[in-house]
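Researcher: We plan to redesign the surface later, but first we want a full-length starting point. Tokens attached.
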């Protein structure tokens, strides 16, 4: 057995007590330590010594620190984003917002203007700009650190001339209208149980939203109708038990709500469109 294979097995055993994805974590960290992609690691592991930094990264992961913070990157949709402490880590569940937008615009003109409220490291906005190459976008966040990551990610992807990033509180002060609005707001109720390392490492302001997890939706509800163009769509992420409550809050002033589900079949997004009379 190669040294790399032995190290992966050993690391997975060490991580098993602190991670539900111990083997995956071990592989991702090894790929980072060797500066190769995970597919190559699995299909043709190199015959070489294990770098010391690998074990340093394993020790960090044993404390609960997210893999994305350790490696400094996270894949989302068809792009890779750089992330770090103080920034919400992109998650596969959020990809339903992008797939729902693709479906909405399949038989319509593509979106020209996209707004991402609470953009974080640019997750949703940059994925959308990668799909619709003639579109421009605006990303807003209350965190300067998040906007710094979003700006760096936009430059690395070559999108910096197609978007504006603004420090702000949701859509306050925004007077333009948009074809597509994307939003992954904080929606975790105070005191709700979270996965290992989430509460300890990721930013509270990107996670928690009051006793019911609905505070952000209440702020957004009166703002959304004035921002959405005819024929457009809002896609906003929700917790799996919030579909009815969020739909009731956001379906107003002519907007109608539907619910999209993630790959596990759980409600994951509320989609808002104008009633037919406005489209």
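Model: Full-length starting sequence:
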């Amino acid at each position: 057995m190669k040294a790399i294979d032995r190290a992966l097995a050993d690391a997975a055993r060490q991580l098993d007590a602190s991670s539900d994805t111990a083997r995956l974590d071990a592989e991702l960290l090894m790929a980072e330590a060797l500066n190769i992609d995970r597919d190559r690691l699995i299909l043709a592991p190199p015959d070489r010594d294990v770098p010391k930094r690998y074990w340093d990264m394993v020790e960090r992961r044993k404390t609960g620190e997210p893999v994305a913070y350790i490696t400094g990157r996270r894949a989302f949709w068809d792009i890779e984003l750089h992330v770090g402490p103080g920034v919400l880590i992109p998650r596969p569940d959020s990809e339903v917002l992008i797939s729902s937008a693709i479906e909405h615009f399949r038989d319509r003109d593509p979106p020209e203007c996209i707004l991402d409220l609470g953009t974080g490291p640019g997750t949703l906005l940059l994925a959308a700009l990668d799909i619709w190459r003639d579109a421009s976008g605006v990303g807003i966040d209350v965190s300067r650190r998040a906007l710094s990551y979003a700006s760096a990610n936009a430059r690395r992807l070559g999108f910096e001339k197609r978007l504006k990033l603004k420090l702000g509180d949701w859509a306050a002060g925004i007077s333009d209208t948009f074809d597509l609005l994307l939003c992954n707001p904080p929606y975790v109720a105070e005191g709700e149980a979270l996965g290992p390392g989430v509460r300890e490492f990721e930013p509270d302001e990107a996670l928690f939203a009051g006793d019911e997890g609905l505070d952000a939706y209440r702020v957004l509800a009166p703002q959304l109708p004035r921002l959405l163009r005819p024929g457009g769509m809002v896609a906003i992420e929700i917790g799996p038990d919030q579909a009815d409550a969020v739909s009731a809050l956001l379906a107003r002033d002519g907007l109608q709500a539907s619910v999209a589900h993630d790959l596990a079949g759980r409600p994951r997004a509320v989609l808002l469109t104008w009633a037919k009379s406005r489209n």
